[in-house]
Every structure is written in structure tokens, then in C-alpha cells.
Prior knowledge:
578 residues; Heat Shock Protein 90; 3 domains; five-stranded antiparallel sheet; 15 helices; 54% helix; 20% strand; flat
Amino acid sequence: MKLSLQFKVSALVLLLVTPIFLFLYYTNxxxxxxxxxxxxxxxxxxxxxxxxxxxxxxxxxSTYLLRTSNESMLLELYSESDPESVNYYxxxxxxxxxxxxxxxxxxxxxxxxxYHLDRDELFLSSQKEYYKEKDAIRSGLxxxxxxxxxxTSLKWxxxxxxxxPVLFKVLxxxxxxxxxxxxxxxxxxxxxxxxxxxxxxxxxIGIISKDGNLLWGQFSKEDLALLRSKLNDQSNHASASIxxxxxxxxLFVDKPSIFSDLNVFILLDxxxxxxxxxxxxxxxxxxxxxxxxxxxIMFFLLNRLVFKPIQQLTSGMRILGKGQLDxxxxxxxxxxxxxxxxxxxxxxxxxxxxxIDVYEEKMKVQQAELKHLQAQINPHFFLNSLNIVFHLVELxxxxxxxxxxxxxxxxxxxxxxxxxxxxxxxSELNHIRNYMEIQMVMxxxxxxxxxxxxxxxxxxxxPPLLVQPFVENAIKHGFINxxxxxxxxxxxxxxxxxxxxxxxxxxxxxxxxxFSELQLERLNLGLxxxxxxxxxxxxxxxxxxxxMFYNEQAxxxxxxxxxxxxxxxxxxxxxxxx
Length: 578
């Protein structure tokens, strides 16, 4: 019996399709396992990376706490001072100022505090409201502070302060009378993890303590019980499946912290991970029909409908890449390629417009950056000034109160009105005098200030807040010995530069200890500008604005006066009102 051609073709197609179908079926199962393993490995690596950054923050904070407890002269002064003495209040104020700066710089630190065991005194600097945080620490850490014992582990302790779980560590000072502690907000440590969670809505991330308490994240009680069982399962491998109350199965990956008893975990929706894999099953079902159809018309249709339009599109992209932005493709014959052609032509037009938009946006960003650089208000100075006014009110020194408030009003009026691109030299110096008068009220009989400049430079124009940051730095870093008078001088002269042009030379000098050799090297070479910190933000600000206003014509030089003290020399072209 002869077989029909239809049967032969059908058998041949079946013979061709069956091995492909089996291969794709095996590939589907294999791909599922590979995807799960790769995703689990990727999630594990990502968690390791973020947990490493978290542990590095904790290690840095531990180092900061150890350095503070062992090296702070202010802590020693506070410990040994009588509560009625000037040194007592001075040491507290200096400590609060220093720690306020530290808390602002170390974003993970919630609070730094000192507790006097003998006096039952607690002082702190915090990102929270002062008195609420003080009450929260007293109520939450009372037992740890009053029954303090040297820690037997390097790990941070998990405690609840003000209804919020935080990481806590405390160390004694050299005298043994003080406890210096740090609270680290778990929310701030978890902020980098929110970026992972925002990548996909199918991911759930959380932080859980060793004893099973949820520290960060949102999970129901039932889901939390399942998570605890996974964490307590010693046979749990790098990743495992877990089914939550929402009915979905999740790939569970966790990593423990080195420096604290907490685990970071991530749950990945397995259905979303394997979203694309059912495509293999659809392909398997379509293969018998597709083979017959494709063998007949594939080459003809592909060449006419696909390959030729793609070649035209590729050629057009090459031409566009060479900068010929006026090139346009001809309208395609098929609907799909007609849409691609329209999008290509629209893209070419948008690229041309984008060049103009990018240039305009750069100009706007530069202007915004300039405004930002001009508007710098020091919160420490503002708070200290209010504190001084408060004490003057208590002492009923009304003349000093009026003087202080008048200078504060002038000082902050100037700060708030730095929208002007240029101001007169006289305006800048008047602002500095207000600043110094306020400092003189804070430190009566300890500070003096003098300025000297030729009358013809009174109306010379300079960018606002150009000189004041250096005067502020002189007070902050040079006035370290409160028992000796401290002097700040500003001298301004005209000088002919190397290009025979007339320059204004501004010299700010003080009677402090001056700069170290390392500081002079870094300041004069501008090395700090690659990574400016809040300690040098004022200098970076001035450097940046000098570059924006004067290009390479202005410069700053730092050196020490042979007779003592540091000197900053600013040399810039003279601008006058037209």
C-alpha cells in the first residue's frame, strides 16, 4: 500500500517537530531552574553589597564613638568641671556644637549623647526634637545606662527608643564617670534598600532581628511567622520558596549583618520571575503549523517585508549617527514599518531640538547652582545666637539684647537677600562687622576685629559672601584657646598683576595657631574640592563662584604668618559700577 504525499509530508513534519518539541520542553524546565538560581544569586549578591555598605556604616560609627570617648578633651573638661563653673557650660556648648555637626555629617546617626553617672545628667545632639529625644532616651535606655557593664561583643544592641527600633552602643570615657552613646536609626540604614524595592513592585524587602522582631518593612503577623520559621530553619540554603497569605509564592533570600543581630531579606515573586517562560510552551504548540507555512513563504516575505525595510532603517541610522540630522526615511509600505519610519523621522527631529534644549538646560542648572551657592546659612551660628539672646534675657542685659538682635537682623537680612549677583565691597564688610559683633557678644573681651581698605575701593563690586566664609572659618578653627584674645584682620589693597592689569588683593589674617603643613598642601592644591565635606564647604563655595565669575583670573592662596596665625589671600580683577 502506497502512502499518500499528504501522509508523507505530515510524517516528515511530525518527525521534524517532535525532537524540537522535546528539546524545547526540556529547555523550558531547565530555563526555569536556571532563572531561579540566577535571580537568587543576583539577589544574594545585591543584598551582600547593600549589607556590606550597612555594616561599613556601623563600623565607621563604632570607630567614631570609640574615638570620641577616648580622645575628646571636651568630655574630660565636662567630667571634671563643677556645674557652677564657666568651663562646665563652655564644655557642654562646645560638645553640642561639635556633635550637631557630626550628626549632620553622619546621616545614619540619629543621636549622640553623654550621660554623667554621678550626676544623672544627660546631654545630646540629635536629628530629632531635643527634649522629646532626651525623654525617649531616659525612658528607653534607663536600665542600660544606670547598670552599665563593659560590652562583651562588638555588635550593636537593638533597643526601642521613642517607640522606634534603633541600634544602640555606649562606651565609657577615660575617667569612667561618663557614658558616651550613639543611636543609629534603622530607617536611615534601610534607605538604600528602598531603591531595590522601587525597581519592581513584585519585590518585598525587610529587616528582622535575630529573635524574630520586624524592624523595617510591612508584613502581616501570619507572614512574619512564616519568615521567622525560615530564618530559624538551619537547613535553609541560599534561597528557598515561601508562600505568603496573599497566595503567591516567593523566592526567599536573606543575609545576616556582621555588626548587629539583624537580617536583611528579600522576597521575589516567582510568578513574575517566570513570566516569560510560558512562551516556550506556546512555541511548541505552534511549531507543526509554523513549519509548513514558514518553509513556503518565509524567504519571500522576509526579504520583501522585513529585511529590506530593516536595511533602509539601518542605513538611515548610520547617516543620522554621522550628524546629518535633516535625513528622513521614506514612508514604509507595511503598517508596522510605516510606524517605525514615522518614529524614526520624529526621533531625528527631536534629537535636533534636544541639542538646543540641553544647552538651555545647562544654562538653567548653572544659574540654579549659582543661587544655591550664594544662599548658605549656618544653623549652628543661628542656634548659638538665639541661645546667647536667651541667656542675656535671663541676665536682664537689655542693652546687649538690643545690640545682639540688631546685628542678627542685619546679618540675616543680608543672608536672605543674596539674590544679587554682585554687591559692593562695603556691603560685604558691613556684613562681616555684624557677624563679628555677634561673636564679640558671645565671647566678651576675647575677640577683636579690624579692617583696612582704600576709599576708592568702597564701591568695587564682588560676589556676595566672598570674604565672610574665611572669617567664619578663622573663628571656628583658629579660636581654640578661649583664655587668650583672638584677633581677625582684613586688609584690602590694589595691586598690578602679571598681565599688567589692576587687581584687588584681600588678605584675611588671624592670631590663631595657623595651618598645618598637610592642610596648606591640600588647600593650595585644591585637593579637598574633589570630595568637599561640610568642614570645607565654605572654601569650596568660594572657589566655585570665583571660577564661575572670573574664570582663571582669580585665585586664593593659603599660608602662615611668620609672626603667628593663618593668612588667606584672595586676588581678583577689580569690577566697578558703570
